[in-house]
Input
Amino acid sequence: MFKKGIKVGNTSALKGNEAKKIISQICESLSIDFIQFENHILSSKEKLLKVKLQGTHTVIYQETKEKGKENGEPLFFDIDGLGDFYPTVYTLWRLPSLLKTISTPQQVLLYIESGADLMLPGVSFIEQVEALKKGDKKSIILDGKGKASVAVVSSLIDKEYIDSNGMKGKGFKSIHFLGDSLWLLGSQTLPPLIEGTSSGLGKMEEANSKRDLNENSNEGKDEKIEEISLSLSSQTLAQKLEQDELIDYCFTYTAKNYFKGEHLKELPMLYNIFWVVMSNVPCRPLRSTHLDIKKSKWKKLSVFLEEKMKENIVQVEEKKEGVFQIVSIDKAHPSLVGFRGDLFSEEELSENVAILAEREGDQVNEKIEIIEMFKAPSLLFPLFQEQGKRKEDLYDISQVREAISAYIATHNLTVEKSKQNVVLDILLAGIVLKKGEYKETISKKDLNEIIINKMQPHYILKIGDDNSEIRKGSPGPINITLEDRQQRKHITHIFGLESFGINPNSVSSEFNKLFAASTTVQQLPGKTAGKEVLIQGDFVKEIATYIIEKYSIPKKYLQASHKGKTININ
Output
């Protein structure tokens, strides 16, 4: 939820009845006794700030301390602005009993810090598991580290699920964790892992330094320092490496090793596509580290790649106004030729094996095959009944033509002097002729066309190797339309994805990462109209290419337009 940076919008101090109302709602939502609230969380001498986040409905409630009027800790947040309140880790350190706990091994925090949800195999203990329900808010604590919360999660499962499936699968959705952008709004202290000790970041670093300098100190001191320091190897690989070094390393590795063979055909490549490729190349521990251009000295990908262009490693061009792409890479550049690519050990890279296997499985499962079929209505069924077909049977177009030819041959309806024409018997006349119309013969071509047009369209949708279903009607199309906005800005609309078994919400998240653009999903008018994905910017051709390549959907099922005119997506 708060893994990425947040932008603070309107901020206002809550006063009088408004403050009482919000505090009352928080207490009711989280079942907090008001006396507990005053004694442990926020005294009557302190006030709450209401902080709205830009581009979302999320509201954060942050304390304001009287001395100097400086901002205090963020205490609660409401994701949708609808009164469903969550406490922050700062609040849970003040009142640990506020949420029931889930205990995990220390190494699991590495995955939570990377934004991953909590899998059930990573859970050691669930407090009051008998009462577990979907949507329950829980506090994550570390095995053997007391009640100090390191994350807040929401349950995706209930007790019945655990009874039926055991401790397998995804269990809890990560909402907020130690080190995310919400935690950064506060004092950035670390959990009080020793009773009566305020273990801030400085204290933790000091403790680590003492441990390094005093390896031969007595066992009691070592244990105390271990408690203060979160152990866990709380400094992840991402913290050990500066983003500048990590980004530059991944760029050089990608430029040297990725663009070979078939991948050479991917050039020219848009900047944002290159970033996605670079972020997914397994030259670093993919789960334990992450790339964040905003935390680097370059701040923007365009600035970084412009630097590489000046170093003559890559050549770039402006594809259209404000949209740049990499055209070529100089593989003979000294920085690539001398690059060893050994920043990480084999042990550190070992986690990538499982990740790459998952990706390979996901890619196989994402391929979509559409088989257009037909069903015979009552008027046409006698044509197929003679061949022992059932009313519910489906036929592809070649089988329909074969059935027509078989009927003609069985009843000897071919005109002798003109083999391309057919005599209309009672059945065929009833199918072909309109009221009041009279004909004795018809061409085989016209007969086939009329019968095929009167068949009921269906299609088989195959997703991956095992999942298939029969659907009525014709598939698609997937519509991609470009809408103009003010000041040469655009919105790209995509709808019709459901016809091909594609989840609009999943695609929206993928487009958000792929194009580094704001995306949203909205319901179209009508009960069965489905949903559409909206992307800020002109990405018509990029989206068409993505859908064709990722899902193997033929181009004929895509329609792209702008102001009512068709856009060529070749």
User: Anything to note?
Assistant: Residues 128 and 210 are 39 Å apart (CA to CA). Confidence is low (pLDDT under 50) at residues 194-240. The radius of gyration is 32 Å. The first strand starts at residue 8 and ends at 13.
